[in-house]
Structures are given as C-alpha cells and as structure tokens.
Amino acid sequence: MSNLLPPNHPPVPKQKIGVVLLNLGTPDGTDYWSVRRYLKEFLSDPRVIETPKWLWWPILNFFILSVRPQKAGHAYAQIWDREKNESPLRVITREQTENLARRLEGEDIVVDFAMRYGNPSTQSVLEKMQTAGCQRILLVPLYPQYSATTTATANDKAFDALRAMRWQPAVRTAPAYFDDPAYIATLGNSIRDGVAKLDFEPDLVITSYHGMPVDYLKKGDPYHCQCHKTTRLLREYLGWDKERLMVTFQSRFGPTEWLQPYTDKTLGELPKKGIKKVAILAPAFSADCIETLEEIAMGGKDTFLEAGGENYAYIPCLNASQGGMDYIETMVRRELQGWV
Ligand SMILES: C=CC1=C(C)c2cc3[nH]c(cc4nc(cc5[nH]c(cc1n2)c(C)c5CCC(=O)O)C(CCC(=O)O)=C4C)c(C)c3C=C
Ligand SMILES: [Fe+2]
Ligand SMILES: [Fe+2]
User: How much helix, strand and coil, in percent to the nearest 5, is found in the chain?
Assistant: First the structure.
C-alpha cells in the first residue's frame, strides 16, 4: 500500500485493534521522592479528592506530602518485588498483559497495560498504540466494581490523551464486571479452593473492599452497592449464609467517615465475639498490591492475632492465575465483539 502513496505522504500502518488493561498505578521505587511523586499525582486527582482545590492544595503539599511518602515508602518496601525491583501491582499487571497477549495472538490485536498514575502512563501507551496502527481501542479498567474514583478517572485519563490526537482511534470502554456470572464463578472457585487448602476451618470469610468516603455514596457513586452485590452473588454461588461471608471496607484515608464496617476495626472485635478463625480476600482488586499485601495479609493478621484470634489466612487476588486469566480473556473477547 505504501508504494501507492504520493511522495512525502506520512506512513499509513496496517490497521490493528488495541486492548489496554488499565490499573491504578504505583510508585517507581520505595524512596521518598518516588512515592511522593506518585502520591502527589494520585491525591491531586479531583475524582479522588473532592475537597475544593484552594483548601486541599495546602493540606496536601504542606502536611500530607511531608509525612505520608515516608510512611507509605516503608510499607511498599515490605512488599516490593526485589528480583524485578518493582511494585507487585505493576509486576502482576504486566503478567496479566503478557498472558492475555499470548491468548489473543494471531488476531492482529495489540495488548498493553497503562496506569492512571505513574508509569507506564496512559498517554504514552495510547500514543504507542496509535502509532502502531490501532484504529480501534478497547479500554479495560481492571476494577470489578465501578467507582468514579477508579473506573471513571482511568477512562478520563485515556480520553484526555485522545483529545490531543489528530487521527483519533475509535474507542470502547469495558464495563464493571461485579455481577458477571463468569466473574462470580471465578472468584467463588478461588474462595472455595483457597479455603480447602487451609489447615483450619474458618469460622468466617471476609470480603474486604477498598473503602471510600460515605459522602461519595450519598452523591451517587454506585461502588458500595456493587460491592454488596458481588458478595451476595458469591454467597449464592457458594451456597453459604450471611454468617459465613461478610462485607467490610478497608484503607480508610483522612478524618471523614468512610464506608463501614471498617476492616481493621472488625478484625479487632471478632475474637471477642468468639470468631477466632478467619479467611479474608479483597475482591475490589484485580491484582495484589500494597492495600492487599501490606494492609490485609500482614497488618490485618497482626490486628486479628493481637486481639485474640487464632488462625488468619489471606486468599490472594485472581492476579494472573489460570481462572483469573480465563475470565479476563472471556470478558475481553465479549467486549471486542463486532471488531474481531
Ligand atoms: C484518598 C482517597 C482514596 C480513595 C477514594 C480510593 C479509592 C480506591 N482505591 C482503589 C484501589 C487502590 N488504591 C491503592 C492505593 C491507595 N489508595 C489511596 C487513597 C484512595 N483510594 C492511597 C493514598 C493509596 C496509596 C497507598 C497509601 O498511601 O496508602 C492501590 C494500590 C497501589 C499500589 O501501589 O499498590 C489500589 C489498587 C480502589 C479499588 C478504590 C475504590 C473505591
Ligand atoms: Fe485507593
Ligand atoms: Fe449501596
């Protein structure tokens, strides 16, 4: 085709389809400046912090960014993948991407991943795809439950990048999958297998979701309802009752009220109620990260055992497991219908 083009015509690449897995992002290192750069970008996002900018800017820059990077850097250091010198969230997202690329090989589909904050940036990945000839791009925010603080801001960032393109690709966004029967079956099987592998029988299994200010729920963010629905559907899939599988919310940030019950407070109270053997998982996350590994697998265990608990086990996220990847492939193929 290119030899039919007039002289000085820009190259026209072969048409392809792009699939971009979108996740939150993570620092490039555990040092103060790497963590600070990441937190500054994250906590300056008005989809995440809705406090008016004139009020939030001094709080963020003079208070939060002077202490939190050090504290968070220490937490990241405890879970850092030292072999790859990378945060688990990025290591796992890359594994998911490479695995999906192998599954879609031979179909002229380019698969990549991008982060909302930090690297690889959404803009750089979309520019790379456009240059490679992707005239149709499927954006896949890897958040099972929709929230403006995660899904919407990931899509916003992608559309910001498209705004600067002369030849803009056609774009689709994959919807949240909190109630997709195939997702529920995958997660349900992972719970059943995770519990079967334990050397104790849990009195209770906790689904601990990332929290959010209650105010965002009141303003219409459906995240809270979607978390509850995921757990209700899991109960139905597993044939368990309410006493066996409960919902909590973790990772509270700042002084305002967040969704309740809080995971840490619940773990501290359960042993007094006679619940001494617990398994816990984090279904708001498609990949293990600081919030699951350091806060739940490590910190949650300390809280529970110090309060008199006897056994505590963390069931990992779906990550790049066979079941997790089967689900991502199914969902991506469904969302690509009509394009391939
Ligand atoms: C400040 C408000 C925050 C809201 C609202 C929020 C929502 C939210 N976040 C996730 C997923 C992840 N969050 C992660 C880290 C993280 N989250 C916040 C704050 C809010 N999140 C902070 C400040 C941090 C950084 C770590 C810390 O300083 O505590 C991560 C992990 C990133 C990693 O590098 O491993 C994920 C993933 C969801 C699903 C969500 C929905 C309501
Ligand atoms: Fe978060
Ligand atoms: Fe709700």
Answer: 50, 15, 35
